[in-house]
Design goal:
Layout (H helix, E strand, L loop, with lengths): L1 H13 L10 H6 L4 H30 L8 H23 L1 H7 L10 H14 L13 H29 L11 H15 L8
Length: about 200
Amino acid sequence: MEHLINLFVRSIFVDNMIFAFFLGMCSYLAVSKNVKTALGLGVAVTFVLLITVPVDYLLQVHVLDPLDLSYLSFILFIAIIAGIVQIVEMFVERFSPSLYASLGIFLPLIAVNCAIMGASLFMQQRIQMDPTVNTQAIANVWDALVYALGSGIGWLLAIVGLAAIREKMAYTDVPKPLQGLGITFITVGLMAMAFMCFSGLKL
């Protein structure tokens, strides 16, 4: 249990997909203009991670590795992610048309969100843990679930936090040369530096 808690906390704050690895930056910057839309996308990304990472783990451990087909993992991971994203897209369109319209093209683009693919590949790396790497191997599907949930929550916190700041910045006097992406990049950099305070955190 202690290992799972440590993995969960580290995946949110220390190994944050945005601030530690800068994965998923495209949709992160584009959809973080208001909190409601950012929250919707963050929940969708978390849901996709929660399904795809354990499924990719089971595929890797119980199918690809025993059959010596690990070289197919990349393309199969992409196929699984694309299938899950299609289901999420249909669900959002059916039950929340306003959110579907707000997210626009960025909802189907979750399929190519680097954070989701990165989580699956990091999971694969932990299965084949290098003894020189200071991370504990994912030993079972529970570890994969906890890692996926933590990574999703970390991404959600990052995008909602940036959206809240950008909403406030709309009412501030930002120097003209820094308006738009300029001040956004500065804000993301400062947020990443703030998250560096969690480096070395171990429960």
